[in-house]
Amino acid sequence: MSEARRQRGQFVAAMLWGVVVLVMLAALVALLRQPSFDTDVLALLPEQALPDRVEQAAAATLGDSTADVLVVLRGEDRAAVLAAAATVRTTLQAEGVALVEVKTEAPDASSLEALAPFRRGLLSETMRASLETITPESFAQSALARLYAPTAMGPGPGVLDDPVGQGADWWRSRSRGVAVIDGELWLPVEEGSAALLRFRTTGGAFRVDGSTPLAEALDAARGAVAPIELQGAGIPLIAEAAAAQANREMTTIGVGSLVAIVLLVALAFRSPLPVLPVATSLLVGIGSALVVTQAVFGSVHVLTLVFGASLVGVAEDYGIHYFAARQGDPARSGVAQMDHLLPGLVLALATSALAYAAIGLAPFPGLRQMALFSAVGLVAAFLTVACWFPLWPRRAPPTSVLSRRISNSLAAWPRLGRTARAPDSRRPVLAWALVSGAAALAAIGLVQLRADDQLRSLQGVPPGVLERQQAVAELLRAPSPAQFFLVEAGSVEALLQREEALVEALKQLRAEGLLEPPRLSRRLRTLRGLEHEQIGEVRTRGA
After folding, report:
1. Is this structure's pTM higher than 0.70?
2. Predicted confidence (pLDDT) at residue 531 exceeds the cutoff of 70
């Protein structure tokens, strides 16, 4: 093929690849305007086909709680806490965060209508213990006291229908001590007063720029209500912190690699001209990988972006190889130089792409997403070098001091075998000694490796966020809503009996403090259980 025809073919290839890059650029701009990045670490795991009833139970258990942000205010004086709650509402509104307060109203007697058939079995653990120990006379005195103060009973049946306050006590146990007074939620604490504010996010918690508007708004509110203690918790805060952490990691890895590459290229080629083409190939590779991954999976996980940031250190090899060859043989044209390098570059691309593709063989969506991102990025960076670099820049980079020193030092490097440059036997001995030392260090490192299968280690969240989350959960005495047992039966009575059997089987875990499930049968006694509660039956009738 003549040089002229080869030049025309290179120009056509550059134009075609330019059209593809423009399409990728338009898709990337549209993606960044409405980003769809995933922060859920469970999305990296294989999807399990769960029965519809399990998914329905999960949806009913979680509800809208995944979008809730809980704010707990705690202080010595109730009036000060109440004023702090008003300040928090004003501050959050002034900060302009996408939060809407969720008001909670006190339950009334109508809430018990659905459980009316089980009214005799609505016993809390405290009430059940009282029925077994307190005398009928004591219950009679308590009933008379409630007649003179009926409003103290709280929600539930009236005094005549429930003289011992069984329904009100059941509601209190069900709410874990949380009381609704004048529209505010108050938590049971040993000292001082604690109020709970509940908000719901109306927008996504993930920010591409790494900002943390929810955390910053809560920090502003925390400063405004001092010395009242403010604790914030909720999945949106965790997702926001994880997204910000991922953004910092991407910035550190990506920018650090890019700066190192630019510095190396400038020192090796003594010209800023090769820097722009190499950086262009990197940006095209990462942008194309982002667009293709979004198109295939529907969203891109933040850990994929963190993993893909390391792609910079691999994709830059193609451009550096090309400019190093031009520097060593400046008389050869760019197109001819690419024809000379193309077999080796294709082989390097194939081996790297196959290595990333092997990662995608595992049945993990996260690994497959990372494999696709890396493979597409490498191919796009390679095509940028192969199509555009031979046409520009036309002038070969000049020889630099660094490139000459590296070239001259090759003769002094240890070699495993004798060559014309190293005929003496000391070089192979030194080379084998270095290889053996490296192998020994690698073996020591492999022995010290430890496996970690905790999903939490994949999602870095600042410690303060998790500590506040745990502190709020302890105040609310609320278990994780994402962990539950699904019990099924043909009738309500059989369902409650099965649930009681499950709780009995889990008694050892409960005794060790590892499990405390909210039990329906602890609220609704089965008929079989009621038959064995003769002491409680007699004492209730006596009262």
Report:
1. no
2. no
